[in-house]
């Protein structure tokens, strides 16, 4: 697979991850795997929340049902990687990146516009995860984890695309594209102001 896929041809992230992140991540792989496990768990929970909040959106319910199953399978796979290395699932920790990004989901707005924001924020979380998985795939020495993160990189790129397409099911494409552009700039600013940490995927 060339470097141009999937992160350069699909993702539109405006600011690349600080190169220092992958170096500190590899030295703290237990912490990264624990945080990654919780990220997958939260991704599944987010999909369930969308189903609960928008049960009348048939296409959304169908896609989120599949996504929840896939994210939960990823959670189980990360648990297996932890167990294989003699690690256990540690405490959950706040995800400052997701917390900051979620603040930009507009409240008290048109229902479909709120849904669009939820979907696009989820898309950006998937995009950033994809970018980080690519860094791990390309740079860590552990060959088993290289393969693992390559597979997840491809999966997260697909989720990013799915979330954006789903947003365009319920709002005009030009409005979705304009809002995505705004959120990409916001996301870059959040990344710019977060210090790389040895115990966080984001």
From TrEMBL:
Highest taxon, organism lineage: Bacteria
InterPro entries the record matches: Ferritin-like (IPR012347), Ferritin-like_SF (IPR009078), tRNA-Hydrxlase_MiaE (IPR010386)
A Pfam family the protein falls into: MiaE
Record PANTHER family: TRNA 2-(METHYLSULFANYL)-N(6)-ISOPENTENYLADENOSINE(37) HYDROXYLASE (PTHR42637:SF1), TRNA-(MS[2]IO[6]A)-HYDROXYLASE (PTHR42637)
Protein name as it appears in the record: tRNA-(Ms[2]io[6]A)-hydroxylase
Organism this protein belongs to: Pontibacter saemangeumensis
């Amino acid at each position: 697979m060339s470097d141009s896929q999937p992160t350069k041809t699909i993702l539109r992230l405006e600011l690349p991850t600080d190169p220092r992140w992958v170096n500190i991540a590899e030295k703290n792989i237990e912490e990264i795997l624990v945080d990654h496990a919780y990220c997958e768990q939260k991704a599944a929970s987010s999909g369930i929340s969308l189903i609960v909040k928008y049960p009348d959106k048939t296409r959304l319910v169908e896609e989120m049902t599949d996504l929840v199953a896939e994210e939960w399978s990823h959670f189980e796979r990360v648990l297996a990687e932890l167990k294989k290395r003699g690690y256990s699932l540690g405490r959950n920790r706040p995800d400052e990146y997701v917390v900051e990004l979620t603040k930009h989901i507009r409240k008290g707005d048109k229902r479909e516009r709120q849904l669009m924001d939820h979907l696009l924020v989820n898309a950006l979380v998937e995009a950033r995860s994809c970018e980080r998985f690519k860094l791990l795939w390309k740079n860590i020495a552990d060959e088993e984890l290289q393969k693992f993160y390559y597979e997840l990189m491809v999966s997260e790129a697909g989720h990013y695309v799915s979330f954006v397409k789903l947003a365009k099911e319920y709002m005009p494409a030009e409005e979705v594209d304009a809002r995505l552009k705004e959120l990409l700039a916001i996301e870059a600013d959040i990344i710019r102001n977060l210090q790389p940490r040895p115990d966080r995927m984001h």
